[in-house]
Amino acid sequence: MNFRLRGGFSVILMSIRPGAPYADRVEDEGKILIYEGHDIPLRKGSANPKMIDQPLKNPGGSLTQNGLFFEAANKYQSNKQKFEPEIVKVYEKIKSGIWVYNGIFKLVDAWQEKINTRIVFKFKLELLNEEIVASSQGQQDIEHNRIIPTSVKLEVWRRDKGRCVKCGSQDNLHFDHIIPYSKGGSSLVAENIQILCARHNLQKRDKIE
């Protein structure tokens, strides 16, 4: 979790793989994410973080990343007419060392939930409706209409060898719908998904090639 990095966006790194350390989940065909807050760091000689409430504040009194996101969500909930939701870029870990971009979401709610013997934070994020969101630096980011299942991403990653199928780039990669979702293309089968770099993804937009 990183609240308001340079450029104005916040960032979260999620994982829904078996054995992931946090209970993140996807709902409503990828339009909604439920993201779990972070535990205290594991320190030698200290208690297991999974047995301790997730912290709102640091020992010195400043807000943790949980606290910053929680405060932003509560501020939006307090007056939706006055305040804008926090804008969050979401990345997903699909395997060790490989993170993929899932799109841009808005943080719309947060709460604390008791799980077994401890309290954890939960954050609700909704996929933005805009197809392209311009950052404060004037850059453009592709915003995916639906989240592609992790199993499909892994299959496509292996097939395309982790490179853009157009130019072979290994930088700033996106999972692209060959037949766009807006034109009936599926997110659920590898045959309709390919890897493109940001440049070729922006060039393609909703074209069927």
From TrEMBL:
<dbReference type="Pfam" id="PF01844">
    <property type="entry name" value="HNH"/>
</dbReference>
<dbReference type="GO" id="GO:0004519">
    <property type="term" value="F:endonuclease activity"/>
</dbReference>
<dbReference type="InterPro" id="IPR015947">
    <property type="entry name" value="PUA-like_sf"/>
</dbReference>
<dbReference type="GO" id="GO:0008270">
    <property type="term" value="F:zinc ion binding"/>
</dbReference>
<protein>
    <recommendedName>
        <fullName>YDG domain-containing protein</fullName>
    </recommendedName>
</protein>
<dbReference type="GO" id="GO:0003676">
    <property type="term" value="F:nucleic acid binding"/>
</dbReference>
<dbReference type="InterPro" id="IPR052892">
    <property type="entry name" value="NA-targeting_endonuclease"/>
</dbReference>
<dbReference type="InterPro" id="IPR003615">
    <property type="entry name" value="HNH_nuc"/>
</dbReference>
<dbReference type="InterPro" id="IPR002711">
    <property type="entry name" value="HNH"/>
</dbReference>
<feature type="domain" description="YDG">
    <location>
        <begin position="1"/>
        <end position="127"/>
    </location>
</feature>
<dbReference type="InterPro" id="IPR003105">
    <property type="entry name" value="SRA_YDG"/>
</dbReference>
